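Quick log. Single chain, no ligands specified.
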Amino acid sequence: MVSPDTTGLPSGWEIRISNSKNLPYYFNADTKESRWEPPEGSDTNKLKEHMSTHHSSAGINRSTAANGSEGKIRAAHLLIKHNGSRRPSSWRESKITRSKEEAREILQAHEAQIKSGEKTLGDIATSESDCSSARKRGDLGFFGQGDMQKEFEEASFALQPGEVSGIIETASGLHLIQRIE
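-> predicted structure:
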């Protein structure tokens, strides 16, 4: 994590890179809040300087080439959020009110379709995932250790290419993960 003195962000905030959009966003590790716009209390001059140096298009070289890069894997997921998710909204619903149990039931039905071969994770993710990666059939691209939430990362790295996880719970909601590469 970069010191707030150099980023211009208030205490507790850091800059992360979105895996679905490959763009910088702001994350508060204490409150688990994430947002695209700078948090209140940011030093805009320091932040502009930091962003232009470290997060301009010239500074972002995250590989999404077919071969990936050393130590990285590629995975897709199907996310079902619930009212306890850190951001209970998505491109599909502005306010998600379902309980965690209801989200689990939905995901279990999707898991059954995948296991039976009736549908693929990508087929379902396109219309049912609460992640913006839905438009890419759930594909999150390549990521390495430390790029994802701990539970998600551990489950992803434990899979073999082509394998689909059971239901994984993170602060974002409930996931089915399929390792691609």
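Residues 57-68 have pLDDT under 50 and may be disordered.
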